[in-house]
Amino acid sequence: MVDDSKSVSKHRFPRVKDKTLKSGPGLSQAQQIIYDFLLDIVKVWPSEEVIEEFRHLFIHHTDSVSSQTIPALYQILSSDNEIEFRHTLKRCCYILVNNWELAREFEAIQGLVDLFNDPLLQRQTVSPSLRRLRRWLANFVSSQDFQDLQLFAARFAEDRTVNRPGEWANRYTSYLLVPQYANEDNPLEQREAARMLSRRLKDRFKLDLALYTAHAQDSGPQAKTIRNPTVLGDSALRLIKAIVAKRGEFSYRNLARLFLEQTKDDSYINFKASLPNYLLYTVRGNAISEQIQNSLGEKLENLYPEHNQQVLDTSLILRTCNRMIDCLMTEDKSLPSPLFTLILSQGNSITLAIILLKLILISRGSHLYLEVRIADLIRYYEKFPHDQCHWVISFLEVFQVTFAICADNIEYSLVKVGATDSGITPTAVNADDLAAFRIFSRMINPSRPEADAEISQSTEI
Q1: Do 138 and 262 fall within a single domain?
Q2: 278 is in which domain, residue-wise?
Q3: How many domains does the structure of the chain reveal?
Q4: Which of 248, 265, 319, 349 could form a disulfide with 426 if both were Cys (CB 3.0 to 4.6 A apart)?
Q5: What's the rounded Cα separation, in Å, for the pair 380 and 386?
Q6: In this predicted model, what pLDDT tens digit does every residue of 332-374 receive, in sequence order?
C-alpha cells in the first residue's frame, strides 16, 4: 500500500526469513506473522533498528524488510475489527517491551512510546485503509491502553519536578503496573512485562531504603551522597524505627499467626466479630480507632450472612479481607471510600497502613487485590496537582515504607547506641526512646517464590 504522503526511504538491514504466507491468510494467521517477525528481529537487531521497522509497519505502513508483514497488517485492517487490531498492536508493543526489559534497554521503550507522537498520524489521506489505520491509532493513543504502555517509560520522568496534574504519580509506577499483570484479558507479554518491571521497581525501593537507613545515621561525608528514596524527609527514619520497634512476642506477624490459630475451626460469624479487635489491637490509643471499628463492624455484620454458621476456611478469609480492603480504600474501584477519606484527612496514614498490613498477614492472597486498589486510588487522584494531594502522597509513602520493612527478604533491627547487648528488649522501646537506637538491615532471602503465587489469586473476588 502506498501512502499519499512523502515516501519513506527503504529500511536497509539484513532480511529476516519470512514465515510461509498462504494466499488470503486468516486474521489469526496474519497476527501471528507479525508477532513472529517482531520476536525474530528484537532478539538480534539493535533496538533503534527495531523501532524503525515498527515505524515502517504501523506508522508509515510501507517499506517493511519482511515481504509478509505489510500484507498481514492489511489483512487485519481489512477485517474492520478495531478490537482485534488493538489486541494486535498491544501484543506487538509488549513483545518489544518485554525483550528490552530483559536486556535493560530502557531507552528503547521510551523510543517506542515516542513513535505514537509522529505528526504523520494526523495527516489526511485518500487511502481508506490508511484512514482506518490512523483513526485506530489515534483511538489507541487516547485510551487507557496507551497510558499503560507509557508506564514502562515513566521511570525517565521520575526525578522531574512534579507540580502538574498526574506527574507526581510517576513515583508509584510499581503499583500502577499491577492492574496490567492482574488482568487476565491482557496479552501474556504485557502481563509479564508489567510483573517484571513492578517487581524490579519494588526491589529497588527496598534496597534504596535499606541503604538510606544504613548511612543516613552517619555523620561522615558518605551519608550526604545517599538519596532518601521517600519524600518523607527525616521523618522516614522515625517511621522505620517505630515500625521495627514492634517486634518480639507482639510483632505484627506473630499477632497474625496467633489470630489465625485462635479462629481456626471457628464459625464465620465469630471470625467476623473478632476481626476488628485484631486489626485495631495495636492502634487503640488513636482517637479515630473507634470510628474505624464501628465502620468495619457494621460492614462485617452484614457480610455474607448465609455463611455465618459455616466453619471458617481460607476462601472466606480471602473474600472477607478483600471486602475490608474495599471498605478502607475504594468500594467502587474508582472513588475513595468514605473511611479512606476520613482516616487520611485526620492525618492517620500510619494507622491505615498498619491495618492493611495486618489484613495481608492473615490473607496473603489479598496482597495483589490491595495493590490493584492502590492503583485505582492513584488513578483517581493523579488528575489533581501535587500540592492538592499531600495527604494522599503521605499515605502512599508510609504504605511503601511499611510494606518494604515487613518484606520477607530484608530484615531490619534496632540496636541501642552504646549498649553492650547486641539485641533490644522489644517491649522496652517507646517513641521517646527511639532516638537512642540505630537501624540495621540485612538481606535474608533474595527471592520470594510465593510472590508469583499471589498473582494467580483473582483480583475480582
Answers
A1: no
A2: 198-455
A3: 2
A4: 248
A5: 13
A6: 999 999 999 999 998 899 999 999 999 999 999 999 999 999 9
The reply to whether 359 and 263 lie within a common domain is yes
pLDDT band at 376 (very low <50, low <70, confident <90, very high): very high
Is 96 strand, coil or helix?
A: helix
- Which domain-ending residue is among 157, 187, 219? 157
Asked if residue 172 is part of any domain, the answer here is: no
Predicted pLDDT at 425: 41
Q: Is the pLDDT of residue 16 over 90?
A: no
Instruction: For residues 71 and 203, state if they share a domain.
Output: no
Q: Which of 107, 134, 157 is the last residue of a domain?
A: 157
In the DSSP assignment, the letter for residue 45 is S
Q: Annotate 412-445 with DSSP letters as a single string.
A: EEEEETT-SSSS--GGG--TTTGGGEEEEEEE--
Let me know if 268 is exposed, middle or buried by CB neighbors in 10 A (0-12, 13-18, 19+): buried
In a domain, 187, yes or no: no
The CA distance from 52 to 9, in Å, is: 11
Q: Residue with C-alpha cell 492538592? A: 388
Residue 212 scores a pLDDT above 50: yes
Separation between Cα atoms, residue 420 and residue 440, nearest integer Å: 16
8 found inside a domain: yes
Q: What grid cell was written down for 447?
A: 527471592
* Higher pLDDT among residues 418 and 147, named by residue: 147
Which residue bears the cell 471457628? 266
431 in a structural domain: yes
Which residue from 84, 105, 107 is spatially nearest to 34, judged by alpha carbons?
Answer: 84
Tell me, yes or no, whether 60 and 125 share the same domain: yes
Residues 274 and 389 in one domain: yes
| Rounded (5°) CA angle 432-246-412 | 100
CA–CA separation, 41 vs 288, rounded Å? 58
Q: Is 267 helix (H, G, I), strand (E, B) or coil?
A: strand
Q: How many residues does the chain have?
A: 461
Question: Hey, what's the cell of 344?
Answer: 487520611
Residue 17, φ and ψ in degrees, nearest 5: -60, 125
The reply to whether 151 and 202 lie within a common domain is no
Separation CA 244–CA 210 (nearest Å):
13
Amino acid at 261: E
